[in-house]
């Protein structure tokens, strides 16, 4: 499975790039984002999708190692606790 992870990552990024290209060509009208009282300048929809995808990819790349550090503090105690729930059918 470790050999397929880079392939699937590249596939997802490629699909996003193609989707952004298609949507930006079909939908070239400028849009502005509104959040509470803030409003952005008007930019094409393709740029909004590209920036959103880029921020999401970078955010996940930063958060994944942090999740790995949080999980390593617990150790393997979760796996040791799960082992007692698996029993053979021969006992019954």
What does this protein structure show overall?
With 92 residues, this protein is mainly alpha-helical. 65% of the residues lie in helices and 9% in strands. It has helices at 4-26, 45-74, 77-83; strands at 30-31, 34-35, 38-39, 43-44. β2 and β3 form a beta hairpin. α1 packs antiparallel against α2 (45-74). It is elongated, with a radius of gyration of 22 Å. The chain starts with a helix and ends in a 9-residue tail after the last helix.
Give a concise summary.
The chain is mainly α. The chain is 65% helix and 9% strand.
How would you summarize the topology of this molecule?
Elements: H1 4-26, E1 30-31, E2 34-35, E3 38-39, E4 43-44, H2 45-74, H3 77-83
Antiparallel strand pairs: 1-4, 2-3
Helix pairs in contact: 1-2
Write down the overall geometry: elongated
Q: How far from one another are the termini?
A: 36 Å
Total number of β-strand segments? 4
What's the main sheet like? 2 strands, antiparallel
Notable characteristics:
single chain, 92 residues, mainly alpha, two-stranded antiparallel ribbon, 4 strands, membrane, DUF1049 domain-containing protein
């Amino acid at each position: 499975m470790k050999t397929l992870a880079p392939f699937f990552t590249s596939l997802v990024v490629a699909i996003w790039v193609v989707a952004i290209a298609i949507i930006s060509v079909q939908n070239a009208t400028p849009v502005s984002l509104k959040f509470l009282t803030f409003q952005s300048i008007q930019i094409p929809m393709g740029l909004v999708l590209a920036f959103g995808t880029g921020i999401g990819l970078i955010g996940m790349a930063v958060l994944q190692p942090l999740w790995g550090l949080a999980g390593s503090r617990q150790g393997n105690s979760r796996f040791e606790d799960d082992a007692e729930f698996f029993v053979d059918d021969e006992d019954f």
